[in-house]
């Protein structure tokens, strides 16, 4: 910014920069030479109109001010197209599945998945599993969820989906709808920050959780866990064509248990934010105890079992690696040690099978000679019976980033990006050789439940920006660019429905063994954990010329340098390392 002094001539001045809330994030006294000078600063703080004030020596009131407008959007800039292009590829694809309806009770905005057979309806699961992507660009986050909340039955049950005309449906055997609703409310509130909306929604979702834990079709009193009719993992049909009403042939499935572990934890976080500590504590205890019961029943020493059968026997499923194992890792049911065991099992089976990708719905699927499935697409290796599903790969990728298998996560991400570039998008499922599968003739290559999970693996996993509350007020920032060989990265995350954002620039200088981390955002605090290059041993961490406390965190064989910084305004941290 260029500065010109007064006609009388000045040799110095003070420049102050404030965000729209008048929070000062830059101030400096500068010298003028021949009545002119230049000042540089990093813009930050709240998005919107920024204020630059000019003060002359000895004067309390500013002499002038000018404005500029600060905005931000989600992006990654690394110089590597595999990462830099992913957001736009996902955005452009998923917008084709955006649906906006005028229903009898109001506007309904939602996202469909990859099967357009049901043109005039939105499945809750496809809608919410697309949320990790569309929250970055969708301004209307609550309209669709409000329609689902309004359609709650007297007993607390939530519908599976809603048609354009307001009619609803529910597959009787589905046992995951209620936790999906909770996760939808939680993640939507994170993006919009509307506490009044959250307070109104909480009693409804609490009723939904009471329903699922009391209905005889869905609750097993002996194990005190949610049950379902025998299906392929989280899918919505019985494996051998029996009725899908949910009244027979019950199993306890890993996929459901991880969902309720996370849903109960989300309830604790939401009640805690609203100041109801008693309910927050109650739900936290419920989450921990539920997780322990599920883990005791389902963990087999290497992975989580597909199912435990309650009232029928038949085929031994103990060897099956079910897709719900990926959720067990990303939803917090698996311990770090268990997660690494699961990831390593995926790697082992991928090397053993030679399949196109380790994205299995089931591995192996049910053999054809059992006669479970009449439809060709559900033969072994197809659809939910062993087909490859992009969402599974996305969750496996994110888990690999979280639990010390970062390089493997990068390999998975690069393979996915190569796939969508080569084929033009992502389908619901593929045969083991990578050929796209079609359950109906209406399937399209822009599946929200799939592409969203891969974008989330890049944003939360590789770029490492995780919202630990709402509106990015508290961010856990864990850049893992070292695993991808990236020396400099600029990353921004923005919720389109609010002004919440967080931005950082990371520079890694191998020659001087230094890391520079510059950051800004709309929030309050960032807990920063940067993946270190091999052999680096940080000995000094300084922020704005002041030394700050740090620690080294081991994640299996990976090491992270960790410290906390305030977000408000702009900050810069320098990390120097000696040889490890």
Give the low-pLDDT segments: none
What is the number of domains? 3
**Averaged pLDDT, please?**
95
Helix share, percent? 25-40%
Beta-strand content: 25-35%
What is the helix tally?
A: 14
Outline, from the CA principal axes?
globular
The number of distinct β-strands equals 30
Largest sheet: 7 strands, antiparallel
- In the CATH hierarchy, what is the architecture of the largest domain at level 2? Alpha/alpha barrel
The helix/strand class is alpha+beta
Give the C-alpha Rg. Answer: 26 Å
Distance between the termini: 42 Å
The CATH topology of the largest domain is what? Glycosyltransferase
Topology:
Layout: E1 2-4, E2 12-18, E3 24-31, E4 36-38, E5 48-55, E6 64-70, E7 75-77, H1 81-84, H2 86-94, E8 98-103, E9 106-111, E10 121-123, H3 124-129, H4 131-134, H5 143-150, E11 161-163, E12 168-169, H6 177-192, H7 195-212, E13 219-220, E14 225-226, E15 228-229, E16 250-253, H8 254-273, H9 277-298, E17 307-309, E18 321-322, H10 324-330, H11 336-353, E19 362-363, H12 390-402, H13 406-423, H14 448-462, E20 465-467, E21 474-477, E22 488-494, E23 501-509, E24 514-521, E25 525-531, E26 536-543, E27 546-547, E28 551-555, E29 558-566, E30 570-579
Parallel strand pairs: 21-25
Antiparallel strand pairs: 1-4, 2-3, 2-5, 5-6, 7-22, 8-9, 10-11, 11-12, 13-14, 15-16, 16-17, 18-19, 20-21, 22-23, 23-24, 24-30, 25-29, 26-27, 26-30, 28-29
Helix pairs in contact: 2-14, 6-7, 6-8, 8-9, 8-10, 10-11, 10-12, 12-13, 12-14, 13-14
Task: Provide structural commentary.
This protein has 580 residues and is of the alpha+beta class. The protein folds into 3 domains: 2-70, Immunoglobulin-like (Sandwich), CATH 2.60.40; 75-462, Glycosyltransferase (Alpha/alpha barrel), CATH 1.50.10.10; 474-579, Immunoglobulin-like, CATH 2.60.40.1180. 31% of the residues lie in helices and 26% in strands. The protein contains 14 helices and 30 strands. The strands form 9 sheets. A 7-stranded antiparallel sheet has the order 7-22-23-24-30-26-27, with no helix packed on it. Strands 20-21-25-29-28 form a 5-stranded mixed sheet. Strands 3-2-5-6 form a 4-stranded antiparallel sheet, with no helix packed on it. Strand 20 and strand 21 form a beta hairpin. The two termini are 42 Å apart. The model has no long low-confidence stretch (mean pLDDT 95).
């Amino acid at each position: 910014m260029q500065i010109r002094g007064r006609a009388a001539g000045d040799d110095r001045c003070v420049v102050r920069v404030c965000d729209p809330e008048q929070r000062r994030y830059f101030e400096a006294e500068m010298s003028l030479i021949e009545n002119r000078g230049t000042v540089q600063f990093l813009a930050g703080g709240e998005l919107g109109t920024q204020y630059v004030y000019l003060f002359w020596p000895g004067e309390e009131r500013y002499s002038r001010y000018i404005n500029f407008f600060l905005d931000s959007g989600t992006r990654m800039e690394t110089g590597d197209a595999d990462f830099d292009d992913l957001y736009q590829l996902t955005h452009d694809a998923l917008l084709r599945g955006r649906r906006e309806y005028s229903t009898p009770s109001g506007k309904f905005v939602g996202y469909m998945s990859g099967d357009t057979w049901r043109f005039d309806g939105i499945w809750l699961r496809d809608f919410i599993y697309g949320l990790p992507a569309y929250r970055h660009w969708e301004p209307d986050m609550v309209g669709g969820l409000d329609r689902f909340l309004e359609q709650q039955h007297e007993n607390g049950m939530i519908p599976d989906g809603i048609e354009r005309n307001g009619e609803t449906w529910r597959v009787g055997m589905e046992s995951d709808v209620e936790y999906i609703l909770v996760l939808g409310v939680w993640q939507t509130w994170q993006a919009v920050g509307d506490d009044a909306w959250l307070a109104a929604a909480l009693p409804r979702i609490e009723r939904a959780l009471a329903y699922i834990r009391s209905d005889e079709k869905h609750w097993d009193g002996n194990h005190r866990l949610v049950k379902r009719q025998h299906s392929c993992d989280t899918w919505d049909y019985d494996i051998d064509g029996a009725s899908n009403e949910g009244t027979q042939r019950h199993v306890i499935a890993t996929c459901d248990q991880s969902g309720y572990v996370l849903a109960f934890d989300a309830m604790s976080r939401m009640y805690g934010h609203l100041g109801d500590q008693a309910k927050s504590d109650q739900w936290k205890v419920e989450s921990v105890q539920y997780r322990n019961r599920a883990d005791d029943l389902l963990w087999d020493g290497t992975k989580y079992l597909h199912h435990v059968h309650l009232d029928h026997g038949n085929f031994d499923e103990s060897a099956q690696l079910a897709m719900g194992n990926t959720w067990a890792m990303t939803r917090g049911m698996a311990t770090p040690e268990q997660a690494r065991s699961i990831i390593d099992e995926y790697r082992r089976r991928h090397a053993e099978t030679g399949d196109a990708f380790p994205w299995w719905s089931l591995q192996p699927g049910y053999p054809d000679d059992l006669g479970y499935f009449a439809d060709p697409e559900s033969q072994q290796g197809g659809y939910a019976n062993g087909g490859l599903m992009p969402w599974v790969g996305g969750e496996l990728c994110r888990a690999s980033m979280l639990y010390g298998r970062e390089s493997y996560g990068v390999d998975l991400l690069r393979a996915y990006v190569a796939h969508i570039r080569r084929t033009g998008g992502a389908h619901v499922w593929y045969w083991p050789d990578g050929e796209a599968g079609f359950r109906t003739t209406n399937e399209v290559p822009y599946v929200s439940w799939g592409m969203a999970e891969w974008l989330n693996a890049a944003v939360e996993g590789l770029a490492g920006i995780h919202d630990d509350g709402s509106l990015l007020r508290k961010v856990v920032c864990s850049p893992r660019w070292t695993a991808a060989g990236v020396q400099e990265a600029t990353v921004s995350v923005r919720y389109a429905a609010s002004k919440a954002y967080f931005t950082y620039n990371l520079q890694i200088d191998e020659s001087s063994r230094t890391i520079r981390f510059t950051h800004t955002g709309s929030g309050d605090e960032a807990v920063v954990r940067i993946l270190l290059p091999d052999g680096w041993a940080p000995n000094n961490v300084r922020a704005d010329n002041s030394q700050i406390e740090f620690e080294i965190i081991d994640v299996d064989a990976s090491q992270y340098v960790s410290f906390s910084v305030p977000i408000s305004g702009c900050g810069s941290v320098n990390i120097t390392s000696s040889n490890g």
